[in-house]
């Protein structure tokens, strides 16, 4: 009886795959806007670098949502021959890595735009602290 409830994870998988699909569209729309910006400014706009980074960020999020959907399916239902996470601890480690990357990308956006230096210092220190904590937790979980 309880074993049959594992199929409830199919709903989580489907939702993650649908959200991943829409995140991919979101990234595509951002890419089109960047192309328009590059063409309209003839490559001279100071916003191009930040916009390109945001496109990468959107696609990174989409890819992670897809990987999580496929990994949940593989963990609870099985039957896939795709390279996915082997357990929940590995998925948490992957998520930690993505969180760190997204924070680093946002920090880079602030560095490239003219945020006050002191605010950048505080934000950079905060991101470094969170990154260290996430990496340590990931390391501790893997050692168990």
Proportion of residues in β-strands: under 5%
Helix content: over 70%
* Poorly predicted parts: none
Q: Main sheet? A: none
Coarse shape: flat
Features:
flat, single chain, mainly alpha, 144 residues, 0% strand
Describe this structure in words.
With 144 residues, the chain is an all-alpha fold. 79% of the residues lie in helices and 0% in strands. The protein has helices at 9-41, 48-76, 88-112, 117-143. The longest helix is centred in the N-terminal third of the chain and has 33 residues, at 9-41. The radius of gyration is 19 Å and the shape is flat. It starts with 8 loop residues before the first helix and ends with a helix. The relative contact order is 0.11. The model has no long low-confidence stretch (mean pLDDT 83).
């Amino acid at each position: 009886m309880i074993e049959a409830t594992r199929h409830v994870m199919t709903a989580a998988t489907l939702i993650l795959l649908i959200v991943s699909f829409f995140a991919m569209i979101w990234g595509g729309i951002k890419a089109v806007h960047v192309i328009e910006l590059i063409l309209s400014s003839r490559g001279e706009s100071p916003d191009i670098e930040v916009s390109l980074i945001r496109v990468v960020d959107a696609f990174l999020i989409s890819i992670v949502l897809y990987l999580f959907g496929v990994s949940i399916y593989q963990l609870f239902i099985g039957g896939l021959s795709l390279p996915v996470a082997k357990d929940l601890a590995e998925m948490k480690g992957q998520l930690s890595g993505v969180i760190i990357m997204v924070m680093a990308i946002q920090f880079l956006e602030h560095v490239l735009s003219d945020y006050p230096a002191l605010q950048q210092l505080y934000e950079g220190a905060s991101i470094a602290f969170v990154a260290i904590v996430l990496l340590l937790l990931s390391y501790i979980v893997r050692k168990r």
